[in-house]
Please model this.
Amino acid sequence: MQEKLNVPNHQKLKAIYLVIVLHTMQIGVGIAGYPRIVFIEVGRDSWIAILIAAATLHIAIACSVYVLNSFQSEDLHGILTQTFGKWFGKLFTLLFIAYIWLMFLSIMLNYVEFVQVFVFPDMTSWFIAACLLVLVLYAVQGGVRVAVGASVVFFFGAIWMLIILIQPIGMIQFDNYFPVFESSPQELLQGALKTSYSLIGFELIWVLYPFIRGRQHVHRYSQWAMAFTILMMMFITMISIGFYSSEQLKGKIWPLLSMIKVVSYPMFERFDIVTVALWMVIVLPNLILLAWMSSFSLKRIFGGQNKYYLYLICLIAFICQFHFDNRYYVNFFTDCVGKAGLFFGFVFPILMVPFAMYHRRKGAKQHAK
Amino acid sequence: MKRRTRKSTYFPCKLDNLKQDVTKQFFNGSPDVAAKTVNTQHDKLLIIYMDYLVLEKEVQTNIISKAQGAKQLDYDTLKSSIPVTDIIELKTLNEIGSAMLEGYVILYTEKSQTCLAIPAPRIDQRKPEKAETESLIFGPRISFSESIDTNMNFIHKRLDTPTLAVEKFIVGDTIPSEVRLVYLSDIANDEAIQEMRSRLNSLKIDDAMESSALTQFIEDNSYSIFPQFLVTELPDRFCYSLKEGRVGLLVDKSPSGIIAPVSFFSFFQTTEDVYTRWNMGAFIRLMRIIAMILSITLTPTYVAALTYHYEIIPDALLVSLGHSRTRVPFPPLLEALILEFLIELIREAGARLPTKVGQTMGIVGGIVIGQAVVQAGFTSNILIIIVALSALASFTTPSYLMGSAIRIIRFPLMLFAGFWGFIGLIFSFAFIAIHLVKQRSLNFPYFVPIYPFQPRDFNNSFIRLPFLWSTKRAYSNRPKQIRRFPKPKR
Amino acid sequence: MQNKRARHLMVMCLIVLTLLTGCLQSKNIIEKLGIVTAYGFDLNQQQELEGTTVLYQFNPDITNASQIIHSTGKTFDMVRANANKKSGYKIVNGKLQTILFGPSIAEQGIFPYLDTIERNAAISDMLYVTMSETPAQDILSASNYEEAPNVGVYLNRLIETAVQNEEIVSSTFHEYMRSYFNIGREPLIPVLSVENNKVAVDKIGAMQGDVHVGSFSLDEVFYVRLLRDKYNSGRIDLEFDLEPFEPYIQEYHRDNRGDNMYVVIDKLESNTSIQLRDPEKLTYDVTVKLNGRIIEKSHRMNLDQPEPLKQLEKAIIQKMENELIEVVSKSKQLGSDVFGFGVKYNNKTRGEELTRDKWQDLYPNIDVNYDISIDIKRFGIVQ
Model:
């Protein structure tokens, strides 16, 4: 049996950071292309699809927190080894790490593509990837506090960009929102499914949980984070639908970034270039936290030092980036991650609930004895 | 080895022997050892001291004449007749040597078992003057002086409270200097005090030199460009920080005090913000932070925009920029580097030269060279404006160290902007952000109140609220008493 | 601890240094660029594009910065590349502000040439799509462009001013594409013409998709815009028969004018709603609510009293209704639904999306009822 995870008190974080950290994990490269993806499926009824996805999301996070609460100060690895035994637990954690790493890679490739499409067509991919990885290494080396801290700072560095959407909002045509309720239930479900691809990232809580001070607030704050994400996606999708006519929206690969092309200020005539560069700040929290998650979980499985796993992860990602450097692979990876995320993010917590209930009962019995 | 005496007790000895031994064995035959044999009514008395280290006048009036007039020449009589306190008796040659270095006058009568050491140190010091590097418009302007006694005097006068705690440390093995740890025992955080104590105790250096040098030995990360301890020459600011629950250090022979723990944003505050009315204070504080951001972004943005991102330049500017750029033979990066370097040159020259010449330098450098550079087509005139503006903005930072740090990080930022445009620029900003999050000051977070996110501290870091609203100290220092005074009922 | 940090720092520095040397971008330094502000396109006999490229030419001794290059090519980008063969500057499109199509292209369809603008992220979405009835190169070679650095910038200012004054419908690239893809609300683009060597907005072209099918004069555009958009501070000149106002008009000494009365209304605010009443019979209800102030009136009458004011408002409403009917019937004739009646139809009918062909068939059959109300709020400092 693995020794219990013991987090010293000075390493612990306030629960309120969950709101920011979980939210930034969910909002990343996906949001730039999301409005089109859901619009292709559901059309003008996208908001219904988002609401359906939101409901499942809130249930999934509630399940996750329930499971985590019943095992008390254990992370994913601890829970899995406690319920499924040493080997199965480790194997499953490894799978989880593989999924996280895949997400890491897909986010990185996506950002590389942004930069090449919008700003520097001739900038080599490995260079952009290296830039990101240097920052990830630098941040994760500082441990969980710095990883979370950097995410919080970058969140504030990026959230103000919502303000620049005022100009596109002024160009909305309200006719574009009608007619409503045209989609069939299948389409809606399909749309909700596609939405959930963009909502993954909250799996972070499985690893971050032991590091949080004030467990009683975890549930509340993680729900807030989910609500915040949903609100933002709803906001951006609704603007996109109003801003583009339907055929136009279906054609734009990154509706959000294309939308920012109309934004211009007296000192910055083209804001989209600044935005794409600044998108690094949106992407970095994802990468930093994912790298931290996977290196930490690897350490939990195999023991040893955190940083060697970190180097390993970044190195493999860097090498892989050479092989998967075109739009086809980017799409392929994003799709794979989305599908895997459906299992790890939504199905897995619900599957874990019976085990957690069993664990609770066992704990209560022991307590009674 | 010469300084060691073989015998543990040296005395009694002959008067002439003592003089010779002290001079030879302890001072390498220094010509500055002054020895006099005084004939008194009863016996001979040897007086040894170091020239320059004692007050001659004091020796004459208080020691020699009093000794001569003494009824008897035993030590008890001498002690009572010489009007100086703290007279000590010494037994070994070593003790005598160190006492002389501290400005003691040694008296010896033949056949005695000990010798007397009477303090008459001569300390030349300048009078406390107006602060030079941190000049103020409002509020107390006096600055620390090089003597720790004067400095402690300021602190005691300013903080007239029994809770003011002072601890004494000796730092430096070859050249020991006195360091005083100062804090308010009912406010300062215990962890901070403990941490500072242990850092000072475990410090093994030859010489503390100066407080800003000492800072670099005890800082959390001395590789960082950003100072983590605040070094100030204003007793007023020093005391204000103590009242906020911070811990202060005073170093002998140094005209500045050290304050820790501090956050990144503390470097952009002055006590003046508190002395002016709250709305002005808030505005000026916010302005300094905006100035800091402008100062590090303006030139790199210019370089990035002109090298890669011509799209973002507004139409009206594009033409005038284009016109003035056509005559410039260098790429924008080089152009900006040259001009920034020029500004640094003028600043450094102005700092090194005497004040009056320095001002002339400023005018010559700023106006004449600036004008000539544009006319010669070395730089575009818009860049001149930008560079001057960002230099100006960097000088609004009240802390000299932080201001310099901000000016210096512009250079790597410019390089990144010149090589990879906005991507490079954002990369370097992200790097700086992570770096700042990583730093700690005396084990307290450095980038507070942004991370750890502490909205309650925005009051004391970015803006300033009226006193009725700011009845509390900053949370991030974790003081023992958070409340300064009860909220007024109005 | 310190030692480890030092090692990390060294590793970092090494990485950064290798990157520094490893990868440098190709630069776009502004004085080495030919920054295009406007393109004009015509088709020649061989069905090839004849492009006119207007670009900035920086020169510290001359205040204007203009160079015009003519080149041909099959595609948009080929025109640019061929123009670049005639210039020592690297021609870039990042600050393209106006794109002008000659009549030869406007009649065949402009969409094929717009693809690169949408595809290439470097080009702004805020450039104006325009056309002309004389060849584009004639328009762009007009030499009087006020204080603007070149004719491309002038065109941009010209159109922007007109849009801001609410004289024409905005046709930025984004808006053009949005209308193009939006079945049932056809795009409108300004038609430019040259007079005395100076370019002016002459008419507004109604498009059927990407094909120019006819134009509205600037007077008619007021009514097109009234239905399509809303006014915040528009202005309109109206002309009435004098007869109904005869009783209220104050006679002055030696008053000698024609039979018409002229009224100018500005600061006009409007709010229009188009409702499809019956999707089967294609009957629409159009409600227009206006308010504004009078700033000029050729005859004096006491508007402080209710009757003359009522009379005036009634006349305005009558006038506007007639004009609206005329404009809509013109648009029916052209087969270009610039008002967005089709969008309303699509929104009301469930099921399949409207196609352009289907609406082309239905559009001439629509029937519109108007309900106009106007509120004259102020009439200046005399009665």
Summary: Strands of chain A lie at 13-14, 212-213.
